[in-house]
Amino acid sequence: MSRKLLTLFILFIIPALVIAGCRPSTPATSPAGGAPAQPVVETVEVVRTVVVTVEVPVPGEAPAATPQVKIEVAQAPGFGDTLKAVQARGNVICGVNGQLPGFSFLDPQGNFSGFDADFCRALAAAIFGDPSKVEFRATTTQERFTVLQTGEIDVLMRNTTWTLVRDTELGLNFTATTFYDGQGIMVPKDSGIASLQDLEGGTICVQKGTTTELNLADVMATEGISYTPAVFDDVNATYGAYAEGRCDAVTSDKSQLSSVAKGLLPDPDNHVILDVTLSKEPLGPVVRHGDDQWLDIVKWTIFATFAAEEYGISSANVDEIRSSTENPELKRLLGLEGDLGAKLGLSNDFAYNIIKLVGNYSEIYDRSLGENTPTFIPRGLNSLYTNGGLLYSPPFR
Amino acid sequence: MNNRRLLISHAVPFWRDERFLKALGQAIFLLALALILGYFIRNMLGNLRQQGLGLGFDFLRLTAGFDIGEHLIPYSRSHTYLQAFAVGLLNTALVSGLGILLATLLGVIFGVAQLSGNFLVRSAARGYIELLRNLPLLVLLIFLYSTVFIQFPRVREAIILPGPVYLTNRGVAIPWGTPTDTFSTYLQILGAGLILALLVAVGLSWYGKRSGRPPLTLFWAALTFLLAAATGWLLLPNPPLEANLPAVQGLRLAGGLQLSPEFMALLSGLSIYTSAFIADVVRAGIQSVSRGQVEAAKSLGLTGFQTLRLVVFPQALRVIIPPLTSQYLNLTKNSSLAVAIGYPELFHVSGTVLNQSGRAVEVIALVMAVYLSISLFTSALMNLYNRRVRLVER
Q: A182, A386, B193, B282: which is deepest, by most CB within 10 A?
């Protein structure tokens, strides 16, 4: 009899526990596991108020409590949460391509290297003063936005094109453009194809889930050229099929075409990139909506590399300039004057760390894409505005 | 009896009544399940809302914006996501349907061959099955794609088999027919032929039951249909189909029916992989028929073929059908491995849709629902058939 009573007791306990467990606890905002160090009860209160006050904002209640100031961002992963989580974790989780020579790929030593990878290091240098505090996550085109949205990575540095839909509907923020690219078409030299019209009825290899795929469809529809797309899941499969002659042509961003042509094709000299540009492709780091502080940090990390190149500061001479300069703008940039770093939630010498430990934009560019590398791409649009390019940093003030 | 129950229910208070407790236990289990599910869904919706993402299927009506290489229905970039899904679904259906046919054919052949008295035939069949059954399907698909179908010569150096059938790394082109203006009339003739064949089948089986000597019903019915089809073809003023032969046109193949390397690799991979499993299912089914049945058939004077057709197969089928069903389901679901080689079936297309629309939850839910529906539908058909062939016990 007592056993039955016990069963009955347990049967009532279980739902009670389940119901208790269902109470809204801390909103699952903390990206990648770093929990905000707030008492649970208080957080619950905030969540409740969000639902009410955001719908009907009552100005009179504003002075009631400081947490309410943060209400508008509390809808999304809260302001400052990403930096807090990153600092608690001790590294930046950076989503990269991982298969793209010159941008991000595994070098023979087993380290990620390339243009995008170096910007991840610059971010780590800005936050920790140590460029090695990066965890690289290779992502596919298909999963890249989901892993960012769900907070598995802190920032996506993966040759991702800035578009309106991605900026809005996907809940992402594009920070600043690190590489201005355009979509091109590569064909074998001996094919005799010289223009888009020559591709009539042909097959074109393209990577799945990219803006490239959409641009190709747009341009071919506009030009009235019929073609068959052969769509593959990743870089290696796409260019592998192209190398085997599965397609008449392959299309992608020109930077990718030239770096891959040199890195992945067995006979790089037998392929040419046609002199047509199908689209604008501004590529740059992406973060989640909602944490504006994090957005600012990533943005100004990039601007710091632009500014450093503009003022002629490189990793070689940064110490010398820092000790001798009288230029107030340089003093602010290098953290000798003002509190620019503190405003971002970083140490005041964050830009100094970036330049000293990773380098300015031209150093980063030349290391991976410069003339002495196998993946050389001319600077072109990616020069400073003073040299006819598009790189322009807002003032450090 | 009734009295006793009344007595018990009065004597035992409801919280100690076993029937009540059992029902209560189930109710609480269901409640807990619903609460847990509700918690997960709430959590998901909450997270989506926090990221400013909605949940809904309205995006399916938006313009897809991308092209798909192979489509059975008209499709271009200006069609909607929903139509892109339909294209993928039809491609899945095509490759699964053909795959099931081929796998069954191969499977039955190899299954019977395993029981052959000839040592060479038996060992060859055994080797085929053991080899294929023990390879991962993904490896097999990538092997077939990257070392067989894409390694065919380029278009200019195409291998031309009689027919002509062109083997190139852009795909395989086979002769095909283009419908002419008499095609619809011919379809009606075929329909009439089918009805005639059915009548013959019904008539023969009625005769068979009456006389006790069943004739080859299927054979005669098929012959009737073929005769009708041939007569129709010859009677029409001009043939309903005109030959469309493939040929090399410049750098490309033109005409005929062109099968892409991705399709060929997927179809052949799925068929031969699944056929190895089906072969074992068939062997097990045949071996499950007791030897006494065969001996009895022989002593009645039935020939070897008659024994198989009238005694062994009808009894083996009821053992074969259920595991065969799950092989068919496997084949259909395995077709999603086509993502690895780039054939635009449902999962491949939905990957693109997911990426272009950013609707991960909805797209994955839709894909799961579609695969579930296909599987349940296949299952239902096979169960229907199973009910017909199973042993009726008296």
A: B282
Residue A24 above 50 pLDDT? no
Q: Which residues contact B291 (CB under 8 A, 6 or more apart)?
A: none
Cβ neighbours for B71, distance < 8 A, ≥ 6 positions apart:
B87, B90, B91, B344
CATH code given to domain A82-178+284-387: 3.40.190.10
- In this structure, is residue B63 part of a structural domain? no
B297 neighbors B311 (Cβ within 8 angstroms): yes
> What is the rounded CA–CA span in Å between residue A240 and residue A341?
46
Answer for the pair A103, A95: CB distance below 8 angstroms, yes or no. Answer: no
Name beta bridge partners: B248. B253
**DSSP3 helix / strand / coil % (chain B, rounded to 5):** 70, 10, 20
Q: How far is CA A38 from CA A26, A87, A290, B333, in A?
A: 9, 16, 19, 47
Dist CA A268 CA A262 (whole Å)? 5
Are A218 and B46 an interchain contact pair (Cβ–Cβ within 8 Å)?
Answer: no
- Of A198, A201, A176, A178, whose CA–CA distance to A187 is shortest? A198
Out of B51, B151, B352, closest to residue A171 by CB = B51
Model pLDDT for residues A167-201, shown as the tens digit of each residue: 887 889 999 999 999 899 999 988 888 888 888 88
* A191:B251 CB<8 A: yes
Burial label, A221 (beta-carbon count in 10 A; 0-12, 13-18, 19+): middle
Residue span of the structural domain in which B169 resides: 81-175+245-389
Task: Indicate whether B252 and B339 sit together in one domain.
Answer: yes
Q: Which residue of chain A is at minimal alpha-carbon distance from B340?
A: A233
Q: Where are the alpha helices (DSSP H) in B212-344?
A: 217-235, 261-287, 291-299, 304-306, 313-334
Q: In this complex, which of B25, B67, B355 lies closest to A229 when CB atoms are compared?
A: B67
> Which of B 232-261 lie inside 8 A of A, CB atoms?
251-252, 260-261
- Quick one: DSSP state of residue A191? G
Predicted model pTM = 0.72
* Contact yes or no for A188/A164 (Cβ under 8 A): no
- Six-digit token string for A259: 């770096």
Phi, psi (degrees; rounded to nearest 5) at B96? -70, -45
- Assigned fold of A183-280: D-Maltodextrin-Binding Protein; domain 2 (3.40.190)
Lowest mean pLDDT among A251-255, B34-38, B119-123: A251-255
Is B325 a domain residue? yes
- Hey, what are A63's tokens? 């002075």
